[in-house]
Amino acid sequence: MVLTLAGGPSPLPAGTGPPAVPTGPPDTSAPPGTSSASPGPGASGAAVSPLTGLPGGTGRIIAVKIDNIVNARPQTGLNAADVVYAIEVEGGISRFLAVYDSGHLPPGDTVGPVRSARESDLELLQQYGRAAFVYSGAQSRFLPVLDRADVLNRSPQQNGSFFRGTSRPAPYNEYVVPSGILRASPDAATARDIGFRFGDPPAGGVPADSFTARMPAASFTFSWSAATGRYLVALDGRPARTTDGGQAGAPTVVVQRVDVRPSPLGLRDSAGRLVPFSPTVGSGEAVVLRDGRAYQSTWSRPGPDTGTTFSYAGQPMTFHPGQVWVVLEPG
């Protein structure tokens, strides 16, 4: 059975993204961060990551804004993230906000291409505590807001852990060395409970071999692979390749429907149009994909400092342990 979310048509890209792996000298002279055992949501009380439900301790949080226009593909480091958010930006296209525990950095110690911060990012990140927030820059009107936000701002203006790749033109060639960011961020928040619950699948749901979520000028198709135990990702109709981890995919995908609205701060794009803002405080509908089935669910986040909970049939909706993708789809 194929399930497809309603939405406007998403154009296919004119071509594929440059395939070359970024080149640069990641600094691996020191360990990226400490990791301390901490009980997560697992029933046994053993150390479990609150972000993935997998065994292990909790490290410091780094969140990286990653480009998703066709020129920026394939991305690097995306498959290593604990949580990947897809968020609408100006023009109806999307960008990613990838969240990493310091104990789960990409093997190549490189993430990107890095792009600029957006208003939606700050509200989303508040549930993580004071994370190290990595971005390439921001609108001048937005910079004072970033300065006041409860994040550790880490851009090329504040940290030297960025480099330009040689195989792509700017602005699609800026990458970050996350271990360098973490060495400069000893006070970054430690991974904590953000509302996710992991466990066996609930009874119910419907078969879902394929599921498509849409933004005005972007689409995300998730196809179930029983062989890998993941929903494999296609972006705008093409497999979402990465330079370092094969095709993107996750055992749990959440399509969280949000009331996208014009920028509360009045921020505008280069054409003078108000940029979109995706609120993540409130409540609404969601579809959770796991183990080849779709569960019509709801989400709730009462305040900016609280986590986001998901419910199905009046009970907490459990995720499959592993990476989680969350698409903030216009509702």
TrEMBL record:
Per UniProt, the ranges with Low complexity bias are 30-47
Q: Where is the composition biased (Pro residues)?
A: 19-29
Report what the protein is called. DUF3048 domain-containing protein
Q: Which Gene3D superfamilies match?
A: YerB-like (3.50.90.10)
Instruction: Specify the domain of life of the species encoding this protein.
Output: Bacteria
This chain's source organism reads Kitasatospora indigofera
Q: Which residues are in the DUF3048 domain? A: 51-185, 215-326
Any single Pfam family the record assigns to this protein: DUF3048
Q: Where is this region: Disordered?
A: 1-50
